[in-house]
Specification:
The complex is a heterodimer of chains A (326) and B (263).
Chain A: E1 25-36, E2 39-45, E3 48-50, E4 54-58, H1 65-73, E5 80-85, E6 88-89, H2 90-96, E7 100-103, H3 115-126, H4 133-140, H5 156-168, E8 174-178, H6 186-201, E9 206-211, H7 214-218, E10 223-228, E11 231-237, H8 238-245, E12 247-253, H9 256-265, E13 271-273, E14 279-281, H10 288-297, E15 302-309, H11 312-320, E16 324-325
Parallel strand pairs in A: 4-9, 4-10, 7-8, 8-9
Antiparallel strand pairs in A: 1-2, 1-3, 1-5, 5-6, 10-11, 12-14, 12-15, 13-14, 13-16
Chain B: H1 2-12, H2 16-46, E1 57-58, H3 59-64, H4 74-90, H5 94-97, H6 105-114, H7 116-137, E2 140-141, H8 146-173, H9 177-188, H10 193-206, H11 219-222, H12 235-259
Helix pairs in contact in B: 1-6, 2-7, 4-8, 4-9, 6-12, 8-9, 8-12
The chains are: A alpha+beta (326), B mainly alpha (263).
């Protein structure tokens, strides 16, 4: 899944790219903010996306993911703050958008035209005239047999793949995909995942992707940014998530509330009842027998005790306050 | 800009409605003189006239009024324009393009230039239908005013372009397709008189300009005149007002595009 990266550099305030021993950042934002009236949809967001990686933007519906992507795609103007693309900021960044392909929300296609014609339009607009180019894109996304069919006859998955093909017109160095797997069946999700992995690994394209399907994102992305209520509350790599979160113990009982009080009194601090109605103790238990004995002595039936590690979903819920706490 | 023009032209010629509307215009302008002759002959017959003679129609007359008495056929052009201008937005295709162009307003300007193609097609199709219909029904007289007729024909094309610049402002600038289409219908059918009557009253009563009629300066009204000069309207009025309206509407559209986010 891509080569391991070194520690990030801290970019300066106008988003200059770190060089030498530090990362090449394709996207940097500096206090990026978008307001609609008095409401801040995005507030003071500082994102760093490294070259050649898949960056996953995580957040629930309405968190601000799409708004951030719209600003980086040139579809919306920031209220304040700035961003840089490929090390360029201001008007130069605007010009660099020619190297950025986007798929924001649903694919923007002319339904009555064929997939081929939809791609042809963008090729004409960008001055792309290589023979076989459109056929190559259709083959890349698995639409080579339906290129002449009207898009209105496509399934949702096929339209999403066409949207990805449109984002790839002009050979971008960066593609921004907003929830590209929404509404897809499992096979469609797998197909999109394969395409994105191929783009990163073989074509060296940087991908910024948003999704609230964390399990799927966890299989694909190299780095993540968590957006909550318009703010970036955390940013980390796949390696860093394991260092931060470690392991935890799950205990399934028939009376979690009482069990929670008892375990708290035993001196364990990170105790909570999670989304699956299990008692979660945020560490590996060395006194497992003592805990179980204590629960049993207090007439609590212990169904299961197991060790687990934090998934991306677990970590996301823990930082956004998604689980019930002690 | 050249690339955008190529893109819009590619989509334009694949619009089935362009050819459908052009076909309808041809049929109606071709049939109109034939039906006129038929009904006139029938009515005269009913009135007791045994034979009716018809003079050939001067070519300049046909050139001045390519749509004949059916100027409301321009509605096909104005509505087609409203839909074409807004299509990128309504289908969301603009999301694929907007980031690639620092000045997004060029997307609208390109469409405004490309709309000259269907305008030219519809005008010449109307002229062809009218010529053939009149040739069969009445015959055509190659008169001395053909030059003026050509001038008025071209002026009316310019005025039609000015009319759709207003449609552009509402559909692509203000980004309201419904309003753009409604305006297209009103302007294309020459129905804005409702609005101009009170304006004329204001100028006549308030500013004491007795002989001032705003209709003499607005392209959508001038297009309804079969012969502008016969109505005492200088062709230059049409040219100047059209150019001013085009410049204003395109400039406003560009300004509005530069201020708005893409939804």
């Amino acid at each position: 899944m891509g080569e391991n990266k070194k520690e990030r550099s801290v970019s300066d305030s106008d988003g200059a790219v770190g060089r030498g021993d530090t990362m090449e950042y394709v996207i940097t934002t500096d206090k990026l903010t978008k307001k609609f009236g008095k409401k801040s949809a995005v507030l003071d967001v500082d994102i760093r996306v490294r070259e050649g990686e898949i960056y996953g933007l995580i957040g629930r519906n309405g968190a601000g993911k799409t708004t951030i992507m719209r600003m980086l795609s040139g579809l919306a103007r920031p209220t304040s703050g700035s961003y840089s693309l490929f090390g360029k900021s201001g008007e130069e960044a605007r010009r660099e958008m020619r190297s950025v392909g986007v798929l924001i929300e649903s694919p923007g296609v002319f339904q009555k035209m064929s997939a081929y014609d939809n791609l042809k339009l963008k090729c004409l607009a960008l001055g792309v005239e290589k023979p076989g180019y459109i056929e190559g894109l259709l083959e890349l996304v698995g639409l080579q047999n339906v290129g002449k069919l009207a898009v209105k006859r496509f399934s949702l998955g096929m339209k999403q793949r066409l949207g990805i093909a449109l984002a790839l017109v002009g050979d971008p160095r960066l593609i921004i995909l907003d929830e590209p797997i929404n509404g897809l069946d499992p096979q469609g999700i797998v197909e999109v995942r394969k395409i994105l992995a191929h783009l990163r690994d073989d074509k060296k394209i940087t991908v910024m992707i948003s999704s609230h399907i964390l399990e799927e994102l966890g299989k694909l992305a190299d780095s993540y940014g968590i957006i909550h209520e318009g703010k970036l509350i955390d940013e980390f790599t796949n390696e860093e998530i394991h260092k931060r979160t470690g392991v935890y113990t799950l205990i399934q009982t028939d009376n979690n509330r009482k069990a929670l009080e008892l375990v708290n009194k035993m001196g364990f601090e990170k105790v909570e009842i999670d989304q699956d109605n299990c008692l979660r103790i945020g560490e590996e238990l060395t006194r497992e027998k003592d805990v179980v004995r204590k629960l049993v002595e207090n007439d609590i039936f212990v169904k299961e005790v197991r060790l687990s590690s934090f998934s991306l979903e677990d970590y996301y819920l823990s930082v956004t306050g998604g689980a019930e706490r002690a | 800009m050249r690339n955008l023009l190529r893109m819009d032209l590619y989509r334009m010629v694949r619009q089935k409605t362009l050819w459908l509307f052009s076909g309808i215009i041809f049929v109606m302008t071709f049939a109109a003189p034939l039906l006129t002759r038929l009904f006139t002959t029938l009515l005269m017959g009913l009135a007791g006239e045994e034979s009716v003679t018809f003079d050939p129609i001067p070519l300049s007359t046909i050139l001045r009024a390519p749509f004949g008495g059916l100027t409301s056929l321009l509605v096909f052009f104005t509505v087609f324009s409203a839909v074409f201008f807004y299509a990128d937005l309504s289908h969301g295709y603009i999301k694929n393009l907007a980031g690639h162009f620092p000045r997004i307003s060029m997307l609208s300007v390109s469409k405004f230039v490309v709309i000259l193609l269907p305008m030219t097609i519809m005008f010449f199709v109307a002229l062809l239908g009218s010529l053939l219909g009149n040739l069969i029904a009445f015959g055509i007289d190659f008169d001395d005013s053909i030059g003026n007729g050509v001038l008025e024909f071209l002026t009316k094309m310019l005025m039609a372009w000015a009319v759709v610049s207003v449609v552009l402002l509402f559909s692509a600038g203000i980004r309201n397709k419904t309003l753009g289409i409604i305006l297209g219908v009103f302007l294309g059918a020459g129905m804005m008189t409702i609005l101009y009557v009170p304006i004329n009253l204001v100028f006549q009563k308030l500013f004491k300009m007795e002989n001032f009629f705003v209709n003499n300066y607005l392209p959508d009204q001038l297009l309804t005149l079969a012969n502008m000069e016969q109505y005492g309207v200088n062709l230059l009025n049409g040219v100047i007002s059209s150019v001013i309206i085009i410049i204003l509407c395109v400039a406003l559209t560009m300004l509005l595009n530069s201020k708005k986010d893409i939804k």
